[in-house]
Design brief:
globular
Length: 152
């Protein structure tokens, strides 16, 4: 309950937890169409889930209080100096970098999402051609990894 007693002007428990809902819920559970590659409401890299939630929380407060880009920059500096979390769960410098990019953009929410999304290579790595083994795998006998394999 100490979270609710803080005087932190950037704290918003509802926004923080809503951000977690977006990466924890499957599209199907809320009636949205899903595919093999679009299973979750938002695709967030597993290692950046806390950064995503804290970035959403802070950015929401910054946008709510600011009237222009200069105000957003000032509020980000205040957040970085006094309020940014420093725990084992959050990469503080990465969080501040994400927020710095968001406050400069026209649509900071999209920047937060793109910075916290899984790398494109992670997303498509399951679909590899037979001629290109996944990193760490040995190629088939008699075929080098850099050889082209003709389709039969």
């Amino acid at each position: 309950m100490t979270y609710f007693e803080k005087d932190d002007p950037f704290a918003d428990f509802v926004v923080h937890e809503a951000a977690h809902v977006f990466h924890n819920w499957k599209r199907e559970s809320v009636g949205l169409r899903h595919t093999r590659y679009r299973e979750w409401l938002l695709e967030i890299d597993f290692t950046k889930r806390e950064e995503f939630a804290y970035a959403c929380e802070a950015y929401h407060s910054i946008v709510e209080q600011a009237t222009n880009r200069a105000d957003r920059r000032r509020l980000l500096a205040e957040y970085a100096d006094r309020w940014a979390p420093s725990s084992d769960q959050v990469a503080r410098e990465e969080l501040l970098s994400i927020l710095a990019e968001a406050v400069e953009a026209r649509n900071g929410w999209k920047r937060i999402l793109s910075r916290c999304a899984p790398a494109a290579s992670d997303f498509r790595s399951r679909r590899r051609s037979p001629s290109r083994p996944a990193p760490g795998q040995l190629p088939e006998a008699g075929v080098r990894a850099d050889d082209e394999v003709a389709d039969p």
